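Annex B. Sample input.
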Amino acid sequence: MAKKRGKKDPLWARLSLIFGALLLLASGGALVGGNVLLNHYSDQITHEGGLGEAAASGATINGPINLLLVGIDERIGNEAMGARSDSIIIAHVPATHDAVYMMSIPRDTRVRIPASKETKYNGGTDKINAAFQFGYQNGGGRDKGLKLLAETVSNMAGGLKFHGAAIVNFDGFSGLVNALGGVHMCVDERTTSIHVGWNQKTGEEGVPYNFNADGIPTSLKPNMKPQVYEVGCRDFLPWEALDYVRQRDKLANNDGDYGRQRHQQQFIKAMAKKATSAGVITNPIKVAEVLGSVGKAVSFYNNEISLADWIFTLKGVDADKMVTLRTNNGQYKSETVNGQSFETLDPTAVELLKSFSTDTVGTFVASHPELIANDAATPAATPSN
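Annex B, continued. Sample output.
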C-alpha cells in the first residue's frame, strides 16, 4: 500500500522544475474579484531584471509572448557549488493569446555561451545548463545566472526576445501541488521509480535501487519493490505526481531526458487544468492556499510588466490549448567533442526555435504534427495561429 513520502531526495529538491509560472498565470486569470489577493502576493512573486539583452523592449505584452521557464540545481547555503539549469522550457503565446506552446531545450545541448564580465566569465562553448552556473558564480546569484542563460538561449534561437521568465523553488512547489490536492495525469509509458519503493517483508518505504558512482541505478536492493506508474489516466496524489515527473532512468521507451521533459510539460498542463477547475477557483480558501504557495515557489521576472497585466492578458488561455512539443522528435542527437558527449538540435528543432521569434509556431507545428507530445489516450491538440 502506497504511503506519503516523508523524505525528499536532495537532488530533486535542488533540481526544481518550471511549472509554477504558467500555473500562476492560468489560475490567476480565472479568478473573479481576485485583484486583492493578486496585489497581496505580487511583491512575493515578481522580480526585476534577469533577462539582460534577451529582454523584449517596450514593456508590453499586447502581441505574441515568449517566456523562459527554468528549473535549477542550486546548492542553498553553498554558493561555491554553484547552480545549473537542469530544466529549460520556452513557452510561446501567440498574438491571439488563446494558446501556449512549450518546447524544452535539452540540458546537454552544445551552445556558445556569451561572456559575463560581472561574474568573470570570458565566454565559451559548453553545455547549455552551464550558462546559469557561469552567471551565478562570483556573487552573480540567480539574477545574473538567469540573465546569462536567457542571453544564451536568445542567441541560439536567432535573437529570440523574452517578455518574462521564471525560476521555481522545489520546496515551495511541493506545497503548491499539495494546495491543489494532486492532479489528473495520463502516463504515456510504463515508468519505474528509482526513488520510491517498499520493502516487501516489512512494508517500510525506502529507495529501491543501488546506484553507481555516477548516480545511475544498478540493481534492486533485497526485498525492495519499486513504485511503478502504468500507462493510463488517473488521479495522482501530490507525492506520486512529483515522483513520476522526476524519472528518466527506468522509462519503458528508454527515452531518458526526452521522456522526462515530455512528462514535465504534461504536468504543467495538468496543474494548469486543476488550478482553473471550479473546485479551486470558486473556493476562496483554496485560492489563498494556491496563491500563497505560488509566492513561495516562483520567482517571476516580469520585465517591468505588472502582474495584473500579465493575468489580464492571458486570461483567455485554456489549459486544453497548452500544446507540448517534442524537441528532436524525442530522439537523442548526440555528438562527442574532445571526449565529451553533447546533444545537438536537428534541423527541424532549429526551425521550430526560429518560429518562436516570428509568431509562426502554430503554423509550423501544423505542418509537423509529429512534434506534438500527447498525453496517453488523449487526441492531438489542434494548433491555432
